[in-house]
Design a protein that fits this description.
rod-shaped; 192 residues; 5 helices; mainly alpha
Length: 192
C-alpha cells in the first residue's frame, strides 16, 4: 500500500510539472502573431476575436504583399548600379618610370662628381648604379602604397554596398508595414 501511494505522489508531481510547463508555454504561443513577426502591435479596437484578427492579418498580409511587391518574410536587397572604384595606374609602367628617373638622375650626379674627381665615365657609372637602386626602392615603396590604397578603396566600396543593402531592406520593410497597417486600420484595428 505504501508503494502505491509513493507512485501516486510521483505521478501527481509529474502531472503538476507537465501542466505547469504547458501553461508557461501557452502565453508565448498566443503572442506569436503575424503582426508581431512584422514588429507591429495590433489592437482589436472593435472587440474582434483572436480568430478574426488572425484571419484579418493574413488577408492584410497578402494585400500588402501584392500592393508593395515585397514579401516581408523574404526581403532581399534591391540591386543598385554598382560603381567600380577607379583602378590604380599600372604599377609596372609606374615602377619602370621611377627606376629610369633614378638611373638617369644618378648618372647625371655621378658625372658631376666624376668630373670633380677626374673620371667622368666612372663617376657616371657609379651614379647610375646608385640611382638605379634608389629608384627601385622608391618604386617598391610607391607600389606598396598603391596596393594599400587599392585595398582601402575596395573595403570602403564593400562597406558602402553593405550599408546600401541594409538601407534597401529597411525601406522595403517600412513600405510593407505601412501598407499592412493601412489594411488593418481599414478593418477596425489600431496599429502601432
Amino acid at each position: 500500500m505504501v508503494r502505491q501511494h509513493a507512485w501516486l505522489s510521483v505521478g501527481s508531481l509529474l502531472a503538476v510539472l507537465v501542466s505547469t510547463s504547458v501553461c508557461a508555454q501557452a502565453p508565448a504561443a498566443a503572442n506569436s502573431t503575424l503582426s508581431s513577426s512584422l514588429g507591429l502591435f495590433v489592437f482589436p479596437a472593435k472587440n474582434q476575436s483572436s480568430e478574426k484578427q488572425a484571419g484579418d492579418e493574413w488577408a492584410c498580409f497578402g494585400w500588402a504583399k501584392s500592393q508593395t511587391g515585397t514579401d516581408p518574410l523574404n526581403i532581399k536587397p534591391q540591386a543598385a548600379a554598382a560603381s567600380a572604384p577607379a583602378s590604380a595606374p599600372s604599377s609596372s609602367s609606374s615602377t619602370a618610370g621611377t627606376v629610369a628617373k633614378g638611373t638617369i638622375g644618378g648618372a647625371v650626379a655621378g658625372t658631376a662628381i666624376g668630373a670633380i674627381a677626374g673620371n667622368t665615365g666612372k663617376g657616371a657609372a657609379i651614379g647610375a648604379t646608385v640611382g638605379l637602386l634608389g629608384g627601385a626602392g622608391v618604386a617598391k615603396k610607391n607600389s606598396d602604397q598603391a596596393k594599400a590604397q587599392q585595398q582601402l578603396a575596395q573595403q570602403q566600396a564593400s562597406d558602402a554596398a553593405q550599408q546600401q543593402a541594409e538601407a534597401s531592406v529597411a525601406q522595403q520593410k517600412a513600405t510593407y508595414n505601412k501598407a499592412f497597417s493601412a489594411c488593418m486600420e481599414g478593418k477596425g484595428y489600431t496599429v502601432k
